[in-house]
Amino acid sequence: MAPWVLSNSNVSLEGTEIIVKLFYPFFIACYVKGRPKPKITWLKDGENIDEIIENNDEVSLRYDNQILDFKFATKKYEGKYECNVENRVGHIQPFANVIIKGEENDHRSSKLGLSDMNLVIIISVSFTIIVIILFSFVIILVIRNNKRKNIRNDMLQLELFFLREGKVGKLNKECTIEEQAEILPYDNAFEVKRENITLGKQLGAGAFGRVLLAQVKGLNGKESPTRVALKMCKFGHDKVHLRALIMELKIMIHLGKHLNIVNLLGAHTSNIDKGELWILVEYCKYGNLLKFIQRAKAQFINQIDPVTM
Ligand SMILES: Nc1ncnc2c1ncn2[C@@H]1O[C@H](COP(=O)(O)OP(=O)(O)OP(=O)(O)O)[C@@H](O)[C@H]1O
């Protein structure tokens, strides 16, 4: 019995039109009967379909070659598809014209192969990763900024509470000055403006502070600059160090001047909200007393004549 096409096929001997939307999946069905069972081969625009199917997982044949399956429609799949059906008794060739519908832009995209699709995916993933990194960066900046703001606020609180005001009423004669230094008030008469101070070389450093040589204009009403030793907190200090320096300043103010001590000459406190507190004291040209005594002792020993000993 010669082969014939079943009515549920979407190909016919007169030809059919299959209209598909771009990127949508579709199939061409060529259901046939005949005895002996007919063999089916496919042609696209007169060429054997094998060339299209080979190494292409977007197009496949199934159901004894009766269905030609497309995973998604792209413009390259447009054309005339002939279903070549034959057995010993006869031969028929129903066909269908496939038309892919889509916009001009889509038309361009339709030419994208699988590797181009992969490229699109890679670009989108990279873009997402970059956005996430930028977003994290912004969050880190905001957190750091807030932290800095908090430190500034802490400093401000310290300045207000410990430096300017003090709490003279709470002073207790039974306690040492060191124990209650922070409730002593600051004396504004010691304040020196930043523009009057010129910083020089470092003279030394202590546990939490460092000492620089500095020139100060207009100190004690003097026209010529005065050479002073300027004490400040070390780099990367925290509020504990600043508080210790504030206490040192207050004790010096409270002690007053004396011939036998290194006297306080002034202080620069107006930038304390930025963690900047400078204490100006008399400059000792021989520096540290202990080192001076050790040096003098060594010189003295060298001067003694070993013969007279
Ligand atoms: N008035 C000054 N004149 C010259 N050099 C000074 C003066 N004050 C300090 N220095 C130098 O700076 C160093 C550190 O001074 P600082 O007063 O901080 O010493 P410290 O009392 O040992 O330290 P800290 O009190 O921080 O533990 C001194 O060892 C000295 O060399």
From TrEMBL:
Q: Which Gene3D superfamilies match?
A: Immunoglobulins (2.60.40.10), Phosphorylase Kinase, domain 1 (3.30.200.20)
Query: GO MF annotations for this entry?
Result: ATP binding; transmembrane receptor protein tyrosine kinase activity
Q: Give the source lineage, highest ranks first.
A: Eukaryota, Metazoa, Ecdysozoa, Arthropoda, Crustacea
Name of the protein described by the UniProt record: receptor protein-tyrosine kinase
Q: What is its main location?
A: membrane
Residues reported to bind ATP: G204, A205, G206, A207, F208, G209, R210, V211, K231
Task: Print the keywords alphabetically.
Answer: ATP-binding, Disulfide bond, Glycoprotein, Membrane, Nucleotide-binding, Receptor, Transmembrane, Transmembrane helix
Q: Where in the cell is it found?
A: Membrane
**Native species:** Armadillidium nasatum
